[in-house]
Amino acid sequence: MPPSVLRGFRDYPPPEAGARSEIRRRMRSAARRAGYSELETPCVESFELYQTKSGEGIAAETWLFHDKGDRPVALVPETTPSLARVFAERAKAEPLPVKWFTVSKTWRYEEPQAGRTREFLQFNLDLIGVPGIEAEADLLCTAALILDEVGAEGLYAFRINDRAIAEGLGRRFGAGESARFFRAVDRFHKIPPAEFEGELAAVGVGADAAKQLSDLFRSAGTGVTSGELSNYLDTIIPPSSDAGAQAGVARIKALFALLEHAGLGDRVVFDPTVVRGLAYYTSTVFEAYARVDGGRAIFGGGRYDHLMELFDGPATPAAGLAIGDQTLEILLKGAGRWPDGEPALDTYVIAVKPELVPDAIGLVQELRRAGLSADCDLLARSMSRQFKEAARRRSRRALILGLKEASPGSLVERDLGSGAQREIPRSEVVRSA
């Protein structure tokens, strides 16, 4: 039986690998335009990094093994703990704010399904050192720039919440344990109402209170827009609520105002059921979701103000987000916006006779050194087959060596779009391009 790729893993042959590379190029370019610098971290870390930094869910899904020194190590399931470790090591030398992005392969041992594989690529944005919601605004503006740049403009929106609001709701309705209450809230749209109310009962929420909370969540629909925000927040967190919940309300209102100024008001909604699962989030949390395909989540993120201290770093506010490649691919392919693959070739050099192949190879090297993409036939194929190959490679033009009608010391250039031809001196080829 021939070997095959492992379950939950994928091969990406051409042109698929080229399309993925183009997506990464656009994402990197957009992040750099927003002032973010690239950070690279190892693909293997100490398992201890995830036992206390990422919560039980991530640790349980980690690809764990022991190295030759019998130390427990793991394939990286997410990048933020690695980033926090690096920042803690460099904190005294790094001027704030720090704006970093990473493009990393990550691994989680979980059940494969559409949009979820065991090995995937993750694009992270992190902003360190800004205590106010200006950090979240910059992250979401940059995320919008990235998504628009890769072709997702009009296909997504952002759902935003604050954990202080979720905690305030828990206290208001009698929940006895925030973590379990968060897990129940996170499942609101994924389970039947009776099951949701049963999960609330397990954390001390009475039947009447559970029904009232369900009604509040349902009244938010697919998200509360900026125009509806103030009235809705006053309904779920009355002005008489405790200071913690009111602080969350103030942050959300301020963030929505900033995003409105930044031109993102048409693509942000408040969703009280967004709480995010990772243990280190401290206040604002958010997701991007598809406006098609049933509202599938595209990425998630939030604020994590205490993570640096776990690595013996100074207390430093921080926020970040992570975009997975699989859900982004599904979104773009579903909308017919996935890139073609490798960029089109600029020039294909065609040798009329096999003895001219050395000349073709030499010309190709000249073109490449001049910054052009160029190639030629290496299989001594017929002229017609070479033209077919040039078309397959989407070449802009062909340079034909050895045509009888060409003057000595010249060759023929054919525009492969229009079919127009002209004769040019061999010495002028690179300059004429």
Plain-language structure description:
It contains 15 helices and 16 strands. By secondary structure, it is of the alpha+beta class. Strands 1-5-6-11-10-9-7-8 form an 8-stranded mixed sheet. Strands 13-12-14-15-16 form a 5-stranded mixed sheet, sandwiched between helices. A 3-stranded antiparallel sheet has the order 2-4-3. Strand 14 and strand 15 form a beta hairpin. Helix 1 runs antiparallel to helix 5. The radius of gyration is 28 Å and the shape is elongated. The model has no long low-confidence stretch (mean pLDDT 93).
Distance between the termini: 51 Å
At the first level of CATH, the class of the largest domain is Alpha Beta
Structural class: alpha+beta
At the fourth level of CATH, the homologous superfamily of the largest domain is: Bira Bifunctional Protein, Domain 2
> Mean of the pLDDT scores?
93
Q: What is the overall silhouette?
A: elongated
Oligomer: single chain
CATH topology of the largest domain: BirA Bifunctional Protein, domain 2
Spatial strand arrangement across the major sheet: 1-5-6-11-10-9-7-8
In total, the number of domains comes to 2
Q: How much helical structure, as a percent, in the residues?
A: 25-40%
Name the beta content range.
Answer: 15-25%
Number of helices: 15
Compute the gyration radius: what is it? 28 Å
Helix-strand blueprint:
Blueprint: H1 16-33, E1 37-38, E2 44-46, H2 48-53, H3 55-60, E3 64-66, E4 72-75, H4 80-90, E5 98-107, E6 119-128, H5 134-149, E7 156-162, H6 163-172, H7 178-186, H8 193-202, H9 207-219, H10 226-236, H11 243-261, E8 268-270, E9 284-290, E10 297-303, E11 318-324, H12 325-334, E12 347-351, H13 357-369, E13 374-376, H14 383-392, E14 397-401, E15 410-415, E16 421-425, H15 429-432
Parallel strand pairs: 1-5, 7-8, 12-13, 12-14
Antiparallel strand pairs: 2-4, 3-4, 5-6, 6-11, 7-9, 9-10, 10-11, 14-15, 15-16
Helix pairs in contact: 1-5, 6-11, 8-9, 10-11
